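Table S2 (continued). Query chain:
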Amino acid sequence: MDSERITDGRGRSRLKIEIFIVLGLSLGQSAVYSIVKLLDKLSRAPLKGQTTTLNPVLNDRQWFDLTYQLLDIAFALVPVALVLLLLSQHGENAFRRIGFTFRRPGVDFGLGFGLAAVIGVGTLGVYAAGRALGLTTAIVPAALDAFWWTVPVLMLSALRHAILEEVIMVGYLFDRLRALGWNIWSIIVLSAVIRGSYHLYQGIGPFFGNLLMGIIFGWFYTKVKRVMPFVIAHAFLDIAGFVGFALFGAAIGIGS
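Corresponding output:
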């Protein structure tokens, strides 16, 4: 959050290119694909009659499915390693720079669980409204076959999403845009819009739900200057959704 502002033209141009590359390798790419997927779905049938499956089976053979799942999770985190490397230039500790540490567990877990509770209720409300208005597809949070490794893989998948999204969309993007001289609300809004955009493949409703989540996370980040609470909140939300659905299925009504 306290990154030094870059004023020389060459440095600013290099930083803009860096941001473009990072987003192009990660969540910016996801946003573009998500928009195209939404257009594809809209051109086929009304959204209310379609289903979006998260965490699908990747192979019909157990051990290859497990292998593909783990590879998918591992390679998705490579952009996180990249931004941490970029943020550690000049010998600075990137983890401390964006607060991706456990140095303040009280703040991190307290704020994280509090945000998860509030946003979790809001997410269910937005989903229900989106389904009622025909703006959101039916979402199946997990469709893995039942094996001994199913729950651990779903938990790892949740952690993958939490770390990838919060480190890049909050920690990295806020740092870099502040260095370019952006005002804080412009950064919050841009980050939230991108966050909403890469959820568009689920329908219009999830766009607005995640847009609001991005604004809330961004505003709190300007206060605590630590990304860890949002990683915890995001992980808790996804673990509850993924594992809860896998264990209880349609009985909890998420995918209907």
